[in-house]
Amino acid sequence: MGTAERAERRKGKQRLVSLLSAALLTFGTSVAFFTGTTSAAADPIEGCTATTGAIVAVDFGPFGGKVERGCDTTPTTGYELLRTGGFTTEGTQHDGPAFICRIGSGSFNSGTQYPTADKENCVLTPQATAYWSYWTASPGQKTWTYSSLGAMARIPKAGDVDAWVFGSTDIGGTSGKPTFSPDDVRAAGSTPDPDPTGPPPVPPGTVDVSAATRWLSGKLTDGGVVDEGSTTPNYLLTTEAVYALAGADPKSAAARKAADFLATPAHTDAYAYPAGKAGIPDATAAARLALVAEATGKDPRAFGGHDLLGDLVTYVCPRDIGDGETIDGCLTKGDFRTTGQSDAQAMAVIALLNGGVTPPADAVKRLTALQCEDGGFTSILIRSGGWCDSDANATALIALALKRAGGHDAVVEKARAHLRKSQLPTGAWPAAAYMTTGNAASTGWASQAMRALGDTPYADAGLFWLSKQQLPGGAFGFEEGLTEPQLYPTAPAVVAAAKSDLVKLTTKKVDPPTPPTTPSPPTTPSPPTTPPGDGPDLKKGAAYLTDTARLVRGRYYENSPGSGFADYGLTIDGAYALAATGENDSALRNIVDFLDKGGKDGKGRGVHDWTLIGTKHAGGGSLGKTALLAEAVGRDPRAFGGQDLIAALAKAVCPAPSTAPDRSCAAKGAYTNAPSVFSQSLAVIAQVRAGESAAAADPIAYLESLQEPSGAWPSLIGTPSGAEVDSTAMAAMALDLLPDAKAQAAVDKALAWLAAQQKDDGGFPGASGNSVNSAALAVQGMTLDAPKYRTQIAKARKFLATQQNDDGGFDVAKGGQPGSDVRASTQAVGGATGISFATLTRSLAGTVPQPVPTGTTGAPVIVTPGGETASAGGGSGSGGALASTGTQVAGIAAAAAALVFGGWGTTRAARRRRHHETTTGGRK
User: Fold this and answer.
1) How far apart are CA 152 and CA 137, in angstroms?
2) What is the spatial distance between Cα 606 and Cα 594, in angstroms, rounded to a whole number?
3) What number of helices (H) and strands (E) belong to the chain?
């Protein structure tokens, strides 16, 4: 599998005024547990079992307390579980009661809420180094998972355990996890048997392999798979088709024809050697092509004019990224350069072994280091000590590779036990152990591994489930119950149904292939005028966003239904989406007038109670986001809502980093209280669009300095965080406004990185998994160079269409908690247009102003806020942010801003420059 498919299968904000002292932030070496009486509001702990209710644990260790537990036998949300479990909470002034800033328990220090006001004033969203992070564990799960959904959005299942921990973590939850295990806080006797007595008791099932291979053969055009709406081959899916066809029939003519197609030098070079013969090969592609050769009787040492196996061995990383000079494409010693994914690492090992080449010992050892505590393997090439989240596909494939390599029996046995345990009662395997629905690709891979490891009954149970999921045409959908046929899940399902596996089918010898055909020369698509591919129904999406059940009085979104507390960040995101589509300009006018003409929410708050303009808490992200809306619809950002937002942005530029305890400025050129790349980018765009490029010079330079060698940007500013799709797309949109060669080169590098992150189903990785927000932002980013990334854009838009529900809204992430989400929907609707935030324009001419409703009171209901960042994209529930404490905003700092996008067909000056420079041979 590899970069294009990563976890196919799975799946800035503002700073606080002061930090807790080091003593308070230090966890003890042991954790004391409270097991006595519970709060009067809580159900007895014994009432929550593996099949009833859920338990919540809050660690007051940093404040001198213990781990307090609570039980709710009928929780509806993670937030309700916390409250009815006997705990009290307090939100922030900026975000409302939804973002959980303090937690208290009647069982500890008379109910005092922590952190106390002298340590945290709870005005802005706390920074990533000192906040309450949210963790979850499903029944039987031995380790904690960092929640990608906020507490108000997550629906606990029977037997779940939630944990709240105060301290520091990054947006991916790779640090700061609870010091106690889920089993430590479960009710006595509530932990399921970790060693199932046998496979699921399901009857035999038969997959129609012939129908599936006919469907696969029909997907090949002149030997290769070409995505709908594209004119260029999808090489990765073509390799998948070869594996499946060869696994079902070693003499498959269709498989051999596809292998001949891939072996044509032009196609081999395009797929595996994009940097040219002198450049570093794409190790994932080289491994895949070597396996294609081995499956069809070709020579992987002379495939498409290349020695694939020799190149794989040549480009193995000799040292860790921290040991000496950085090596492009390397993270740790033993990695195959440029892979990044554990499945690609495993495929390379298998290809070498089956090609008669002993793989480097460090490359095999690298696989063993990817095993998680529960026995499964992570899908990403993490470093030692990194966050490890087991993935069924990766576990199966690495188990096959290590079994083939030999000498790793204990590791393989542990993986085998994990696969047994994670199989669902239906016979299926989920994409991740904590999920409760089957995944066809995961079931296919796991069934292959279980049969190879001698667990035939488990493999057969997987085939029973697959037989029930097979679609009329013979193919499979991505997830349980989905009816759109897809090649990615069909291929491993066919191999499993043929009772083969990737190692076995690439070890067999077959007859020589037919003479190579001469494929038609590839055509170069002309620049599109509309987004390529079948995208979501934008009219239906806009109707979802403007439904008064969600858009209160047609003016704003609440941060929880009935609270009366406007989520102004989310409201602006909705306005961006409507501006991008042009589907309801009247509704857009109502929102803009509400914000601009002094409208108040049910709590009497206006938009500047959110931007906090004129106070020391004003944030560059929220100021920039509001100014951008004014610019997009033709209003004056210097007099919007009665305030000069552009002057405020200039004042918010930091002249130097602030010193503790003041953490408002991360660095010279950062904006005050804007700790994310999203926030920085929004403010830069607002200033540049206002003609204030000179005033934005330091912020631009600082944004450019944050770009990593890979081309990506991290989520957070001033806090360590990993590369992120959302932030990279947003930063690229900002810099693309600039005319200089340095900025344009940075954009080019960012777009190449973005495209490489795409999953096989067209999605993109985010904090919530296969993220709708991330896919939408990636569309906007790649559209900056639409002719080059036409195929990737089409796939991403098609992915977004698969995540749209009947009501017009969108899920947060594929395979995640189902149901439409307003935040994700604003991102999807606007992003699918391809319009860059930096060029978004919508005239309100011809619309009729309507009276702004006066405020009314409403009972507050807590939800995670939009904060200056919680609204969108960059992390907010999908893209990579801190585990939040409210709606699916996963991001604290990263969630930063927005989802605002700009236009597909907009021809920018920068884009015109890019086209000119491409056609004239270089930059001016």
Assistant:
1) 17
2) 9
3) 32, 16
